[in-house]
Write a structure and sequence with these properties.
Elements: H1 8-15, H2 19-26, H3 34-46, H4 53-60, E1 65-70, H5 76-91, E2 95-100, H6 105-117, E3 122-125, H7 134-141, E4 146-148, E5 158-162, H8 164-177, E6 183-186, H9 196-207, E7 217-218, H10 225-236, E8 244-247, H11 250-262, E9 272-277, H12 280-283, E10 290-293, H13 296-311, E11 322-325, E12 329-330
Parallel strand pairs: 1-2, 1-3, 3-4, 4-5, 5-11, 6-7, 6-8, 8-9, 9-10
Antiparallel strand pairs: 10-12
Helix pairs in contact: 1-2, 1-3, 2-3, 5-13, 8-9, 10-11
GO molecular function: DNA-binding transcription factor activity; transcription cis-regulatory region binding
Protein name: LacI family transcriptional regulator
Keywords: DNA-binding, Transcription, Transcription regulation
């Protein structure tokens, strides 16, 4: 059977000091001599004492814990961002409580209730749907600090995010500028109301005088490399074959690239491919992939700063603010100019 919780009284009994002296020493109070503080800390360490954060939180009304809700822990960009957020919060003295919705709206609602039940001081969230966010808006209306990591200016919520519409526009515009008109789209987010990338793609086509052709758009029904491979198979079996592909993320783009290699298509000579997120694997693919960069460090720092401002705002939250970051296209071998 494990040892019970070590209390301040146990340290007091071991050292002969009062519990008040022990408490002050462990908080590094200058009222206690340095030698006494050192002796008490050594005794606490020998007893494996841990501060009672629950008791502290009841007094301060802070748990120094932030909830981070992801849609998919296997997504390389979200994994990278989660790591960066955890480090940024740790620098500010906060722990991170992770949870995943698995791209399921009902599961997301349950996860938010679970995270809130742990009395976290605030929440950072990648919502499953960019439009179905009434349950998240309800948190803010209740004066609860929450920052989305995707969003739009009309959401009524705080958000720090990459401007996905702008990024998709730039990716498609890049393909148009190097001579492509038959541009395929692999994007599965639209059924969830996540229309930004598709709209950016359509905007670039329209600006160039190219009609949007539904036959060149395919829903991969997922976000993985395998789903990208299967989507490419379906797209190339259709009535019209593209000369270039814009993929909503790099995993899907890697799947499209794998399909091309397996089926004897040269990239970029026969098919140009560009992804989104600029994950590490994109640069080191057999044909290095062009991609829209997702600036993890910038998103992380701004999102954490905004959440800290909300937490420190007192009894009433300030008006919501949406910060959209204009991403850049990273051009690699998969979209070299055709000659």
């Amino acid at each position: 059977m494990g040892r019970g919780i070590v209390r301040l009284k146990d340290i007091a009994d071991k050292t002969g000091f009062s519990t008040n002296t022990v408490s002050l020493a462990l908080r590094d109070s200058p009222r206690i001599p340095v030698e006494t503080r050192q002796l008490i800390r050594e005794a606490a360490n020998s007893l494996n004492y841990l501060p009672n954060f629950i008791a502290k939180s009841l007094v301060s009304r802070e748990t120094k814990t932030i909830g981070l809700v992801l849609t998919d822990i296997t997504n390389p960009t979200l994994t990278h961002t989660a790591q960066a957020i955890e480090l940024a919060l740790a620098e500010r003295g906060y722990a991170t409580l992770f949870a995943t919705s698995n791209n399921n709206l009902a599961e997301e609602k349950k996860v938010l209730e679970l995270v809130r039940s742990r009395q976290v001081d605030g929440i950072l969230i990648y919502p499953t749907s960019h439009r179905q966010i009434a349950h998240i808006r309800a948190l803010r209306l209740a004066n609860y600090p929450v920052v989305m990591l995707v969003g739009d200016p009309d959401s009524g919520l705080d958000a720090v995010c990459v401007d996905e519409m702008r990024g998709a526009y730039k990716a498609t515009r890049h393909l148009i500028d190097i001579g492509h008109k038959q541009i395929g789209l692999i994007d599965g987010a639209n059924p969830l109301g996540n229309r930004e990338k598709r709209q950016g793609y359509v905007n670039a086509l329209t600006e160039a005088g190219i009609d949007f052709d539904p036959a060149l758009a395919v829903d991969p029904r997922g976000h993985s490399v395998l789903r990208g491979f299967l989507a490419m198979d379906a797209l190339m079996a259709g009535p019209k074959r593209p000369t270039a592909i814009f993929s909503a993320n790099d995993s899907l783009a890697l799947g499209a690239l794998r399909w091309c290699i397996k089926n004897g298509y040269s990239v970029p000579r026969d098919l140009a491919i560009i992804g989104f997120d600029n994950i590490e694997f994109a640069e080191h693919a057999v044909v290095p992939l062009s991609s829209v960069n997702y600036p993890v460090e910038i998103v992380t720092e701004l999102a954490v700063e905004r959440l800290m401002a909300l937490i420190g705002s007192g009894e009433e939250l300030p008006p919501p603010r949406v910060t959209q970051i204009d991403p850049e296209v990273v051009v690699r071998d998969s979209t070299l100019v055709r000659t």
